[in-house]
Each structure stands twice: as C-alpha cells, then as structure tokens.
Amino acid sequence: MNDPLAVGITGASGAVYAQRLLRLLSRAERDVHVSISSSGAAVIEQEMGLRLDLNDRPLDLFLGDDTDLTRLRYHHHSDMSAAIASGSCRLAAMAVCPCSGATLSAVASGASGNLIQRAAEVQLKERRKLVLVTRETPLSLACIDNMRRAAEYGAVVLPASPGWYHGVRDVSDLVDFIVARVLDQFDIPHELIERWGAEDHSGESQ
C-alpha cells in the first residue's frame, strides 16, 4: 500500500519524537502530510530552542538541512481546506505525535477545532488507522476516560512510555523505542530496536 501518511504535532511534551519520526518517514518513499498546532510550535521552541514560523516552511527548521523534504506536505493547522480534512484523501494512517490532552479530548468527543483534530476525526469515520502518542503523567480520570473512548472508536492509543529492556545507552534509544512502535503501526520497515525474542540462528541447536 502506497497511500499517504499524516503526522500531527500538538502541544504535549515530546517534540523530539515527532522530529525523529518525520526524519525517518522522509526516507520511506511515501507522501506524508504534516501539520503543527500553535501549542505544538510553542513546545518545540521550549524543548528544542527552535522558533518555527508556522506560516513559512516550518519543516525546514524543524527537520534541518540534512532531511529530504520532497515528499513532506505541510499544512497550516487552520487550513480546513487541506486535503487531509476530507475522507476522499485516502490516508493509510495518521499519527498525532505527541498528542496533547486537549487533542485527545477533541478526538474522543468528535470536536474539530483545527486541521489536526479534523484529520483525526476523518480517520475514525473512515475506519482508517489513527495513532495517538499521548504523553502526560499522572493521568486524570477524564484523560483515562478519553483514552478509553478514543480506543473504542478505533484509535490506537500509544503512550510515550519507552521501555528499558532493549539495551538503553542514551536518550536517543528511548526516543527510538516509541518511534519504532509508531512505524510498526504504519507498516514501515525499520531496524531501530531489536525485537523481543529475536534469536541468533547462526548455529544449530544441539
């Protein structure tokens, strides 16, 4: 399947997950629609020191000169006429990464206040893959209930809770743990982490 993908970046902590995900998707030979909320841009500035102008090619600064942007299609979060706002745009999958509590609430309630929320709603109504990379702790009862409702509607709730069992050496390994899970949901091959239970078959059992 070569249908396009989408990534929405919202105002939860964890902008580095989105940056790593997009850099890898840029090499996957797939068209990728990208939108960044105003809160997402604020978090990027706070966490990464990058002040993005959402009206002027923000992916150039966010992803850097060494990333091929040819197949990344940026849409302003207020542009409700963008292709991904319609079910006729056959997205194979969409990830909201990271996904803020406000965006989670909007998805769970079917309320669309910006393009990211609308595109997520479209994924659910069209019965297509939607991955919500939530990142908040501790969780309020409302947040837990929103996760439950989003999952019942068909979303994959994928909290940014990295494991430590894969030989963590630095922070990038923790980032890759989560990004690998998103790529798995997108059916994008990768070698970011060694899969659990992988064995060395170079020798025969005695």
Description:
Helix 4 packs across helix 6. The protein contains 7 helices and 6 strands. 36% of the residues lie in helices and 15% in strands. The protein has a single domain (5-185), classed as Flavin prenyltransferase-like (Rossmann fold, 3-Layer(aba) Sandwich), CATH 3.40.50.1950. With 206 residues, it is of the alpha/beta class.
What brief labels describe this structure?
206 residues; alpha/beta; Rossmann fold; 6-stranded parallel sheet; 15% strand; globular; disordered C terminus
Describe the structure concisely.
By secondary structure, this protein is an alpha/beta fold. It has helices at residues 15-25, 38-48, 58-63, 101-109, 115-125, 141-152, 171-185; strands at 5-9, 32-36, 72-76, 93-99, 129-134, 156-157.
SSE layout and pairings?
Blueprint: E1 5-9, H1 15-25, E2 32-36, H2 38-48, H3 58-63, E3 72-76, E4 93-99, H4 101-109, H5 115-125, E5 129-134, H6 141-152, E6 156-157, H7 171-185
Parallel strand pairs: 1-2, 1-4, 2-3, 4-5, 5-6
Distance N to C terminus: 42 Å
From the alpha carbons, calculate the radius of gyration and give it in angstroms: 17 Å
Which strands sit side by side, in order, in the main sheet?
3-2-1-4-5-6
User: What is the C-level CATH assignment?
Assistant: Alpha Beta
What characterizes the major β-sheet?
6 strands, parallel
CATH architecture: 3-Layer(aba) Sandwich
Q: Find the CATH topology.
A: Rossmann fold
- CATH homologous superfamily designation: Flavin prenyltransferase-like
Number of distinct beta strands: 6
* Class of secondary structure makeup: alpha/beta
Arithmetic mean pLDDT: 94
Strand content: 5-15%
H-E order: EHEHHEEHHEHEH
Helix content: 25-40%
Low confidence ranges: 201-206
